[in-house]
Design brief:
With about 325 residues, this protein is an alpha/beta fold. It is built from 12 helices and 7 strands. α2 packs antiparallel against α11, α4 runs antiparallel to α10 and α10 runs antiparallel to α11.
Length: about 325
């Protein structure tokens, strides 16, 4: 329902309208700068008179708001990919079953029971969450298990968040450390201490820097009893920056997000220019608009000249 409402807003042109308004402000700013560069004989100090610095700051703030709305919409549209990793027989399948609310993965005390990736989708606060239980990442001579482990490595490379399960009684053993060494740099991690019902560890969330795996957050829970699962679900939404459903979200595509991020970077570069770098300032504004043009369509140098002549009495 959330995605459907967001799609309807996008179809009605809410996202397009916001981008066009953003581009209009950018064109005005470019016009002021380019007019100063192209017609210095007019002796009109457009930059000071028009408070260009203030306009740029306002433009950056507007772009940041649009980008935030689009990024939240992307989370709701595409969801998040979560992988369960850890040494064999540490409780990954039990946690998957607990999150899914069904026995979709076989659970035994035999290491290597999960011989392939097992996927399940749940919904948290309207956000689709794709959970993948990986085959225990370990060295094995079993050909079938080797194939499952290779698929697990691929799933990890595409994940947004990794839930790293460890047995707090053992800590990070050699097998777990080998898995940690294989994870992509920058992958968001949550350390899970499962089997709290057996270890006596209190069900809780810790962000005190005491994680053994380098994760920012440690959660003690019991997949068997369900204690602590709500804490984990909340932490997952926090990890991807979900701020809750809003009527202002847009169903932006990945290429739209990339274009907005590029425009944001160029405006940041423009803000770093000083009064003696007007040409460079103008170039960063041009590149920012080029990025936005990937969403709205082309806007040429001739178009900009037309705007300058239409809004200012130059050469008369």
């Amino acid at each position: 329902k959330s995605a459907a409402r967001m799609a309807l807003r996008s179809l009605k042109g809410a996202f397009s309208q916001q981008i066009h308004e953003l581009v209009d402000e950018l064109i005005t700013l470019r016009m002021l700068v380019e007019a100063t560069l192209d017609f210095p004989e007019e002796d009109i100090d457009f930059l000071a008179e028009a408070k260009v610095d203030e306009r740029l700051t306002a433009l950056q703030e507007r772009l940041a708001r649009v980008l935030a709305q689009a990024e939240q919409g992307a989370i709701l549209r595409e969801g998040m990919n979560v992988v369960l990793v850890g040494a064999p027989n540490v409780g990954k399948s039990s946690l998957l079953n607990a999150l899914a609310g069904d026995d979709i993965a076989i659970v035994t005390d035999i290491a290597g029971t999960t011989r392939d990736t097992v996927r399940e989708q749940i919904t948290l606060d309207g956000v689709p969450v794709h959970i993948i239980d990986t085959a225990g990442l370990r060295e094995t001579d079993d050909v079938v298990e080797q194939i499952g482990i290779e698929r697990s490595r691929k799933a990890v490379s595409e994940a947004d968040v990794a839930l790293i399960l460890i047995d707090p009684r053992e800590g990070v053993n050699a097998k777990t450390q080998a898995i940690l060494n294989s994870l992509p740099a920058g992958l968001k991690k949550i350390e899970i201490h499962n089997k709290a019902d057996l270890t006596g560890e209190p069900v809780a969330v810790r962000s005190d820097g005491l994680a053994q795996t380098g994760a920012d957050t440690v959660i003690s829970l019991s997949a068997k009893t369900g204690a602590g699962l709500d804490l984990l679900k909340h932490a997952l939404l926090q990890e991807v920056g979900w701020q809750g459903e809003s009527e202002s979200l847009f169903l932006a595509r990945s290429r739209h997000l990339n274009a907005l991020h590029e425009a944001e970077a160029e405006l940041e570069n423009a803000a770093l220019c000083n009064n003696n770098q007007i040409e460079l300032f103008a170039e960063h504004l041009r590149l920012a608009q080029n990025a936005c043009s990937e969403i709205t369509g082309e806007f040429t140098a001739d178009d900009l000249l037309g705007v300058i002549f239409s809004r200012f009495c130059i050469g008369k």
